[in-house]
Structures
1.
Amino acid sequence: MKYAQTLLIPFQLLTFVMMLLALYTIFIYAPVEKTMGVIQKIFYIHVPTAFLAYMAFFITFIASILYLYRKDSIWDTVAHCAVETGVIFCTIVLITGSIWAKPIWNVWWTWDPRLTTTLILWFTYVAYLMLGRVVKENQRANLAAVFGIIGFINVPITFFSIRLWRTIHPVVITGSGFNMSWPMKFSLIITLIAFCFLFFSMLISKIRLERLKKCVEEIKEIMETGI
Amino acid sequence: MNPEPYIEARGLVKKFGYKTALRNVDIILAEGDSLALFGPNGAGKSTLIQVLCSLLQPTSGSVRIAGFDVRGDREALHQIVGLIGHQTFLYPHLTAHENLKFFGAMYGVARLSARISEVLDLVGLGDHRNDAVKNFSRGMQQRLSIGRAIIHNPMIMFLDEPFTGLDQQGREDFIKLILHFREQGKTVIMASHHLHLGLELCNRAAILKSGKIVYLQDTARISKNDFKQIYSQQVGENALQLKVA
Amino acid sequence: MKFTHKLGAIIWKDFISEIRTKEMILSMCLFSFLVLVIFNFAFGSSANLDRKMIAGILWVAFVFSGLTGFGRSFSMERDLGTLQGLILCPISPWTIFLAKLIGVFLFTTVMEIITLFIFTILYNATVLPFIVPLGLIAFLGTMGFTAIGTLFSAISATARARNVILPILFFPISVPVIVASVKATEIILNGKSLQMVFPWLKILVAFDLIFLLVSYLTFEYILEE
């Protein structure tokens, strides 16, 4: 725990620096795209946050399995904090997606597989958080873990079922590589790394906060009962 | 010689969220022992009983009943355990006969029809076998609940304030039944507010306060009055809750 | 042998209770009837509806009405206080789940048959020539959504806002089932062969198997306190 604490502050400073670098990359370094114009730059936020929104739920999935297997409350905390962080990133994906779509395709929303699956993911996140609020405390961790597992398994199935249904999402990452110029690819890599730092920074801070809260509650209880 | 512990709880802790209901409870009972559990409301008696019959999982500590771990071999454990508690576990839209038939099937009871008749007669509900439970009075439901709990002839009986709702006759019949359990060598754990009955019927007595066992003794070694004094001391002003009659 | 005997006992018990109260089946059928009527007001007369929409309307009626049904499967046991009695029996938690699932599935199927009948009347739909493929789709789709519905009913049984949290948990997870069932039904009602719905059936089968497996691995944790 001590090691982690001393490493945390430099990590968060580094995150700050990376995000500044990302901002510079997006607004100054990255070239303006020919057909789409300046609005295309939202791509550098949209793609990393999308990646992290799914990654967050994957973390919840693994943490949920580990919790049910080992019953160590740290895994429940990790799962829960990953959802809290993930839902923020998921919301950003949906909003940036809409903002990008309107000038390009002239619609605020389309029901294509990736967008729809991300929307379902968002609903799953929200359902997870609501579940945590309404069930009894002694069952909450178990039930949240089960839902975390079910929710994650549902994501690929949802994706395939909707893809079978329809698709018009632009294919940027094709089998043969990016359809982008080198400066753009480089910008994407920078922003991706920066957002990863941001995500893990937020996640670790949340986990730390939850653990401290737990400690306080336990101390309170000991003081109240005098045992 | 110490007989092999039949019911063994060591360092049992049960928490509900941040609230601790049971703190480091240690109980060791041999086969055929009977334990009377006393304590004020909220002390954790029901919680302790529910953990021992594996309806609740311990937060930490170990609990072994008849060699089975409550965290693991639950099915085997349930086969030999009976619980009479606050809830009757009866289905209101089924008749007395159907309720017992259901539980008999769940416990794999052999020669079920004969056993159902036997149990209904034992609890004095032979005349009501085809009446729906929703029409039963509280006392009748409690009787049928007793029938439900014993239908599979469990070796361990957990009783959580079992006299609730029973009239005088019902109480007397049930006391006879508990004595019968003891004759059969069943292990009994009974939570109750009835000091007199508890000390009469059981060979060990414990006082639970705020989730801790504060007193544990063989009933043969202490008089009722002394016990009552110790109870008042330990529990304080809550002594009023104890029925001495 | 013992397993099927105990499974049968729970199904028998739920069946008898339901026969005597008829609560679940009446409310489910009434609700689906209402849904079909309301959709008629929402979308205009049946002459204008193309088959895309009627497949959707039918499944919305099935799913929403099913929701009122399986919401009760575990919450009823909690309310009566009998769930603990059931857990205390020498039976694995998954057996309890399976028994509840089979019961809910059977009642939902009865509701669906009645709904389909009302549907053919209200919407002048011809369904009889397609009854076998429709039956297969309905079987797989219903198995899927009743499985998750029963699972989430167990999860939400102890929750405070039980009736609100169940649909919130249920709908995101039921999307693949609903999409596949509606699309497959639409294709069949358009007179196409069963061959064309194979991809959708594969999704339904995969969903059913995956979620039955997941329920098997996790149900004991849902009942654990």
2.
Amino acid sequence: MVQSDLLTDLYVFILAAFIGFEVIRRVSPLLHTPLMSLTNALDAIAVVGAIILAGEGKSFLATILGTIAIVAATCNIVGGFLITDRMLRMFKTSRPTKS
Amino acid sequence: MNSFAGSDLLLQITYLIAAVLFILSLKLMSSPKTARQGVWAGELGMLLAIIGTLLHHGIVDYRWIAIGLVLGSIIGVPLGLVHMTAVPQRTALSHAFGALCVTLVGTSEFYLRAPNVPPFMMAVLSAEVILGSLTFTGSLMAAGKLEEVLPQRPITYKGQNFVNLSVLCLAILGAVVLILHPEQMHLFPAILGISLLFGVLMIVPIGGADMPTVMSLLNSYAGLSAAAMGFVLDSKLLIIAGALDGASGFILSVNMSKAMNRSFSNVLFGAFGQEQAAKGADGQEAKPVKSATPEEAAAILAAASKVVIVPGYGMAVAQAQHKVRELYDALTKRGVDVKFGIHPVAGRMPGHMNVLLAEADIPYDKLLDMEDVNPEFPQTDVALVIGANDVTNPAARNDPGSPIHGMPILDVDKARTVMVIKRGMSPGFAGIDNPLYYLDRTLMLFGDAKSFVGDIVRELGGGHS
């Protein structure tokens, strides 16, 4: 990889971390558990790397490890989004129901 | 030269849109009103990125991919449907899965590229594998402790920090040698093995009360390892997702360590759990306490105009949250103002208590965090503590000799009457005596949280049966 690519990646990482700090600081402690399961599901975007690894067929080892990696990441995507939504559906306010 | 490099503009634009959706997703999480839209934004971003990748030309064989996706979904669905009390262990398990994915991809990339790996690339590759593998075993250990298949008691020994740090340094040292001499490929499995070992050692001294901090820390590590993987694959989307997750875990870790009154560096190296055993149950002499029956408790609650309920992990263990909801209903019906005061480290992971109470249909605007509820205690008639101990211990505020001195607590002792539902007088998890129980205004309600709250509800004439 070219040196400048790495530098660009470093910029991306640092800027994204700053955005992360600013955005996540505003998340209410009420939602910290769903926040953790959501970020975990988003993290499973690593599946993209695993898909390429398993699909390129560069070596037998890479294909097998890539496939296991897909299983692990897909698990997090499906399970992570599912449980986050289940949790968030439960959060109700008392205002509309009480009159 | 690189599978991600930008030959395909359309794919790169898809990734960019996905990245924007991910950031938007977290932004929408700021309020319970918009949070579900946040999940949808995240799902959309994920779907776009995966479809985009599947159409990528580099892929020659879809069979293994299909097997992986189907198998992952089959395992993922039940993991998304677990009971709310099991959310902490599920989350720990998902950290382990995420880290496993990162480690496996890192390992493959190493063997595909070595020995022609430039130093910076080897550095991020090592970071990916070290962080990934220690998060993998660490999270499995945490999940095992939370699921109680492993002993929850912290296991500590003399020089533990030194041993742990040495093991970690060994892995880093191996990585440094590999960066300078990439042809020493046999070092790679050693680094992998040592990091896996470190993950186990890191969690061995952790007890239940430290779990929220550890969960946050593992969350952060999982994110950072994914970001490192993004560097290896030159995938900006992965770098962004990893950085967001890393930042999120970091913020939660800082919150948790503040709430436990531990220095952040202490937490960062996983070097905690030991101090707790320091001061044992030395106050064994029987000090007088006042206890009350459910009838008496119900009468006091019925006469109150403002009640704050302080739930702790004991409430979750006793599965008492639905009975607590009935109590909330019965008191609200009588015109009593009922709120919940939630300490940041109540439960086994950040925000766990809120989820359990929301599951029991308690409106979230009644759930207050520590800063919001503490000013209310002096005007509170009854503070009802259910299954919480150390987070209500006034010694943290006024006894410099206490092992938890300086830890921010819920000031329940400032309420006019304090009621504590507890099984017996045994000190809590941390083995620290709680002076709250001997106050004049404190009534001990001895019994199982679920049945005791049920009895109070029956006395109040609310609830079912």
